[in-house]
Amino acid sequence: MITRFRYRAVVPACSLCVAGLLACTPVPATAAPAAGYHGTVRPRGGEPAPPALRAAVPAPSLLYRSGVQVRPRRGAPELPDVSALSWLVADASSGHVLAASEAHRPLPPASTLKTLFALTVLPRLPSGMQHTVRYRELADVAEGSSLVGVEEGHRYQVADLWRGVFLSSGNDAVHVLASLNGGWETTARRMQTNARALGALDTRVLSPDGYDAPGQVSSAYDLAVFGREGLRNPDFARYCSTAQAEFPGDGSPYAIENTNRLLTGEDGVAPYPGLIGIKNGYTSNAGNTLVAAARRGGRTLEVTVMNPQAGGGFAVYEEARALLDWGFAADGQVDPVGSLDGLRPKARPAASATPVAAATSGAPDDDWSGTAVGAGLAGLGAGALALALRARGRAARR
Fold first, then answer.
1. pLDDT (tens digit per residue) in 200-209
2. Taking a C-beta distance cutoff of 8 angstroms, is the pair 307, 300 a contact?
3. What is the pLDDT of residue 346?
4. Which tens digit of pLDDT belongs to each residue from 56-80?
5. Any residues with CB less than 8 A from the CB of 91 and at least 6 apart, and which?
């Protein structure tokens, strides 16, 4: 029995135990209702509270839903009719996704995958670097690939090769740059690592030039992530917005032109006002794909369109045009359905000088700090009780 314990020894120990247990007790759900898209919270008085406000940026899971995702406000313009298997419209500055359809559907990307190739390799190779092309660097270029005309034995600046990649979608230039980057397989691995670091989890890289390979896929979401990240690189932004350039050839250079018709206005496709560029692609397996960005009225919008099912070979440009028009017209009239930063790994927070016990949270399932503090206090109480028992035992023995 411990009825003969000293009051001043027992009370502090028990107090600490009780404090620990109280700290571990979950906060009632009615204490801090979470905001959602819909729903009514009923407080203790029984009267319904006003509907919770819609979240500014929903959880990433919303963009994994099938079908069109859009959150229009009253008076917002109607979305255009788009036949692409997958598409997305985003604000390039904030990363807010304004509307999308099948945003995470895995599809062959064709040459739009060159955006990830450029993100990965551009920082590693100085633009003024000179290189003489060797035969083995061109030996594995796939038959039927798009080419800019890189020749064995010719000396090129790295900047020339990048213009060949962005304007002519030259797979021969990609092979040479990949060789300078450590080789084809090494470049594919680095691209894959880079995609994961950017939160582009749908992308599987097998062929750095985007040429069809079994199992190689990306998504409208991932390609928008790559395009937006590319615009932050001055070299990328300059190359992707170049409409025409000269490429070195035997004896004299020759003219090359960007294959993005929204930029050049070729083949009867009207150029889009304020278009920044980025990248288009095509293979028989992927169909037509496009990542495009345009600036108007201080806003920069980005669209991805993958494999339109109607309208012919240039439908990818017209559907991108319609989505850009809608995005600019819908300024301030739609709530975001996601974010291009939504899947990017979060940086570890720096150590805080605020005591852990001072932290509060309305979501106990997501915050372990209160539980940790409670456990610590309970442990201190138990330790104090054990010391009291030990002291009493020694006194009894005396």
1. 999 999 999 9
2. no
3. 87
4. 799 999 999 999 999 999 999 999 9
5. 98, 299, 300, 301, 302, 327, 336
CA-to-CA distance for 176 and 134, rounded, in angstroms?
9
**Do 255 and 229 touch, CB atoms closer than 8 A?**
no
Q: Which two structure tokens, joined as six digits, stand for 304?
A: 């991805």
- H/E stretch holding 293 reads strand 287-296
Provide long-range contacts, Cβ within 8 A and 24+ apart, for 266-272.
267/314, 268/314, 269/314, 269/317, 269/318, 270/321, 272/320, 272/321, 272/324
298: left (phi over 0), alpha (psi -120 to 50) or beta: left
Alpha-helical runs (H) found in the chain: 7-24, 114-121, 135-138, 158-168, 171-180, 184-197, 220-231, 234-240, 261-264, 315-329, 369-397
DSSP characters for 9-59? HHHHHHHHHHHHHHHHSPPPGGGSPPP-SS-----TTSPPPPPPPPPSS--
The angle formed by the CA atoms of residues 50, 76 and 306, to the nearest 5 degrees, is 115
Q: Name the residues annotated as catalytic.
A: 111, 114, 169
